[in-house]
Specification:
globular, alpha/beta, Rossmann fold
């Protein structure tokens, strides 16, 4: 990408709110596509850490011969950081939030931003399961609001789940779909419903795998191997749970159990015990696997 190509993308200026693993990954792919990106979080150390994640991921690509040094430098040059949310979003064509999965936090953020951004700015949430009708409740111009559910690790995963609410306009869907393809993603479009398509199916499979470990049916390694070798999954459900975080998946499971009133989303006692013990997966160093 050259700097001139930033004008060719659907959203030349993007703000990403939340500089954690997902936010940093989203910022990276947007910058790689040619957009100018502001990565925002509430503290300097958090945005610095997020920028470091991008730098490290790109360097690994250089080391493996998948990214040139010039592409690395050009991508990093298109990313800036900020701690002031209003400043980060004021000139944005697209705002993507990747803050913690707390409904009140997300809703408050979007209500605030609706009075800051331009009238043409699209507002997108990276939530993996929360009701977008509730995330965007009370937000002005709801026709420009949409879900953009990325998958971890963002630079490598091809799927991008676009979630429309009853108010999302066809024009918003068209612009975001085009941008998704510019990011190198394959978009799917689903209607706003608990868990959407991916989380609803993925969490259900993961919970059943945990029940199997709990019942002593097989080891975590062998259950995962069954799905990888027998069904062609790139990663087993238990290793994926470790990667996402047991605490994150537990919160989603509890939410889906309540919203769908389906016993299949009842979290196993083993999962609750592991979360209580701090065995959260990769981020804590221990889950179903030692990391």
């Amino acid at each position: 990408m050259t700097d001139n190509q930033s004008a060719a993308v659907s959203f030349p200026d993007v703000a990403v709110l939340g500089a954690g693993t997902m936010g940093a990954g989203i910022a990276q792919v947007c910058a790689q596509a040619g957009a100018k990106v502001v990565l925002q979080d509430i503290r300097d150390d958090l945005v610095d850490k997020g920028l470091g994640r991008i730098r490290d991921f790109l360097q690994k690509g250089v080391d493996k011969g998948k990214v040139s040094a010039e592409q690395r430098d050009a991508t990093l040059a298109r990313v800036s950081v900020a701690t002031d949310r209003a400043v980060a979003c004021r000139e944005a064509d697209l705002v993507i939030e990747a803050v913690p999965e707390i409904l009140e936090l997300k809703n408050g953020l979007f209500r605030e931003l609706a009075g800051v951004v331009t009238e043409d700015c699209v507002l997108a949430s990276n939530t993996s399961s929360l009701s977008l009708a509730k995330v965007f409740d009370g937000v002005a111009a709801p026709e420009r609001c949409i879900g953009m559910h990325f998958f971890n690790p963002v630079p490598l995963m091809k799927l991008l789940e676009l979630v429309r609410t009853a108010q999302t306009s066809a024009a918003t869907i068209e612009r975001v779909t085009a941008f998704s393809r510019q990011l190198g993603k394959e978009p799917i479009l689903v209607v706003d419903s608990p868990g959407f398509a991916s989380s609803r199916l993925g969490v259900c499979l993961g919970l059943e795998a945990i029940r199997m470990v709990e019942a002593g049916v097989a080891s975590a390694e062998d259950i995962d191997k069954a799905m990888v070798l027998g069904y062609g999954h790139p990663m087993g459900p238990l290793k994926l749970t470790d990667l996402v975080g047991l605490d994150v998946r537990l919160a989603i499971a509890d939410y889906l159990r309540k919203e769908l009133d389906h016993p299949g989303f009842e979290a196993p006692a083993l999962m609750r015990r592991m979360v209580a013990e701090g065995k959260l997966g990769k981020k804590s160093g221990q889950g179903f696997y030692a990391w």
